[in-house]
UniProtKB/TrEMBL annotation:
InterPro entries: CheW-like_dom_sf, CheW-lke_dom
Leader sequence segment: none
Start and end residues of each CheW-like domain: 12-84
Protein name: Chemotaxis protein CheW
């Protein structure tokens, strides 16, 4: 009797951003926290809400949507980032799609959130050089 190969699975967070499902892989997700007090940084782009502390470290807080229910702390390029704007739907192991850049959940496809794009908000344009990150 031959066994059917199991689909690849990926661990992480399933979130909703403007009603659409997205995925944050477990290897970049550090924690889910209540939104802390955020100090606005003069001259920062609107997407950068400011800075906050997480377990004694200062991290930039970046908005990817309008929701302000939680902050997801992620690690990208060796640095911590606070991400707000997405509501957390669940955490666990999800079926990977064939392209491996998304997961399937209840008939929906949740693409990975591109943290390089989020991180580039800290590094690009006139803002570059002001954040030592």
């Amino acid at each position: 009797m031959s066994e059917r190969p199991s689909a690849a699975k990926r661990g992480g967070l399933l979130v909703r951003l403007d009603g659409q499902p997205f995925f944050l892989p477990a290897h970049v997700t550090v924690s889910i926290e209540p939104v802390p007090p955020i100090v606005r940084v003069p001259g920062a782009p609107a997407q950068i809400l400011g800075i906050a502390t997480h377990e004694g470290e200062v991290l930039p807080v970046i908005a990817i949507g309008a929701d302000r229910s939680v902050m997801v702390v992620c690690r990208y390029g060796g640095e911590l980032l606070g991400i707000v704007g997405a509501s957390v739907v669940g955490a666990g192991i999800f079926e990977s799609t064939t392209d491996a850049d998304s997961v399937s959940f209840l008939g929906e496809t949740a693409e990975d959130i591109d943290l390089s794009e989020v991180y580039n908000a800290l590094q690009g344009g006139a803002w570059a050089g002001r954040w030592g990150g």
